[in-house]
Amino acid sequence: MKLRALAVCAVAAMAGCGGDDDGNLDCSDYAACGGDPVGEWTVVDACVDGTIDPEIDNCPAATAAIEDVVVTGTVEIRDDGSYANNIATTATIVVTVPMSCLDGGSCADLAQAAGIPCNENGDDCDCMNDYDDSAQESGTWEVDGSTFTTTDSGGDTSDASFCVEGDVLKAQPVPDDPNAPQLTFVMTR
To answer: What domains appear along the chain, each with residue ranges and CATH number?
Structure first.
């Protein structure tokens, strides 16, 4: 059943995505510079540079957009080599599926199969899903030049390039997928 598979792919594509917030941060001005990351940081802005591909089988013309992103929370980087964070992210993910991909189905059919609201928009069907994620994490950290590496309490490691200038920390986590959009976070202490 092509419509059901399309709906499942659309929902899967929407999970775990970030996005551009209110446009106050120009991601293109980021440059890693290293520095001393120790401090209690508050996330004040975040953005995404790039687009996501919803990768919907049999519908290469489908697109995805990330809207209304808000990232809030705190990151405590301690001088004993430990860290703790509490980050919340909300966004709206909009997947636009051309009606021609629905194999004679309607937006209502896609909405029912996907379990999310979908509305007809001319020759397209726009499906919207709210993304809401809160995460607390702790572990250890180390710095090598301008690379910040964390190891969480479960043993998973993550790298990010970073730059501390005064009381502003900018960081860009290395994406798991090289084709994924680049996230940039801005924090103040």
So the answer is: 2-188 (2.40.128.300)
